[in-house]
Amino acid sequence: MLAVNGKPVIRESVIGTDKPLLRVLRGETVSPPPLWLMRQAGRYLPEYRVVRQEAGSFLDLCYDPALACEVTLQPIRRFHLGAAIIFSDILVVPHAMGQEVSFVEGKGPVLSAVRSTAELKTLSDGPVRDRLAPVYEAIRRVRAELPADVALIGFAGAPWTVASYMVEGASSRDFAYLKGWAWRDRAGFGQLIDRLTAATIDHLCAQVEAGAEVVQLFESWAGAVPDALFEAFCFRPVVRIAEAVKKAHPSVPLIVFPRGAGARSVDFARHPAVDAVGIDTSQSAGWAAAEIQPHAAVQGNLDPVLLIQGGRALRDEAERLVRALGKGPFVFNLGHGVLPTTPADHVAELVDAVRRAAG
Ligand code: 1CP
Prior knowledge:
Layout: E1 3-4, E2 7-8, H1 20-25, H2 46-55, H3 58-62, H4 65-78, E3 83-85, H5 92-96, E4 101-104, E5 108-111, H6 133-145, E6 151-157, H7 159-168, H8 176-184, H9 186-210, E7 214-219, H10 227-248, E8 254-258, H11 265-270, E9 276-278, H12 285-291, E10 297-302, H13 304-309, H14 311-325, E11 330-334, H15 344-357
Parallel strand pairs: 3-6, 6-7, 7-8, 8-9, 9-10, 10-11
Antiparallel strand pairs: 1-2, 4-5
Helix pairs in contact: 2-4, 4-6, 6-9, 7-9, 8-9, 9-10, 14-15
Residues 38-43, 52, 58, 85, 87, 89-91, 103, 108-109, 155, 157, 171, 218, 220, 337 line the site of coproporphyrinogen I.
């Protein structure tokens, strides 16, 4: 053991709020920046495919605390990542609200569509946390097993994004039913958004109470919100959720990922309840350093397709992002989720490149 003046020096252990991700989300600049990847658990990992097969359906996997804990930890065992994100899905919230939800191989999510104010009656009332106990149990198990320097992220979809699946009944290109309802009947559509806002606050607070140390709101379809509806159906619900979670849990940082929001990402950054803003692949790192970093930490934004390519181009781009954003609070991530054809070795290569780029 190391000793100074005869006294043992215990290396400062990384505990609690010393975790690099939590420091960055408090506004500190940390080098090398903490790195995690959206969809870091999933099909690109062979060990995930084994567990997924064993579980049966995708939702069975989400609701089995032992298996959900296992797949959450798989990328943590393989790579030196700064955070784990609980293995679940944004669509467990509509499922807990009584909507039929399934995941069809090769097609994605399929839901019994809710397309009018009258159909809102088919959704059940009451706290979603009563129906999502297995998710919170998985969080407790992950927290107990995580290495000391790795933070645990809980998450939910933002109301507009979750509503898109509830109304369309599946993934969509044009969001015709969703936007049709929002334009036709703002008050009725607003009721759906309000119900989702309340359910999301409940679900995020329950995740924190189970052990999540950070929460992220995925507004994956922010880019599809018409400008005239953005304030009412994207910005305000996200801010209401952020404020409510902060009020209940003041020390828990919140990341918002408004994919496709462009310059409006700055509005989220300026809000005091938002600690970090995720930027997507289309956004400029230099712009984010100038416009977002003065107000909030920036998370992003390596192209997931470059992670499939690997090699020199991947290392150069990782270095460029660290140079552009590493002088302020920065969380290294992708501009969207890991793609299923990504070679796992390239994730290790990226982790190494980010560490080297920070010097
Ligand atoms: O069978 C399978 O393995 C299905 C693939 C899969 C996985 C691995 C789905 C179906 N969801 C997930 C897990 C998941 N989903 C996580 C786990 C944690 C991690 O990141 O490792 C997270 C955070 C999500 C969030 C999620 N689900 C989002 C927001 C993020 C994003 O990608 O924009 C969205 C939009 C969904 C809906 C969803 N779930 C699954 C699919 C195929 C879809 C539809 C995506 C689309 O419409 O493009």
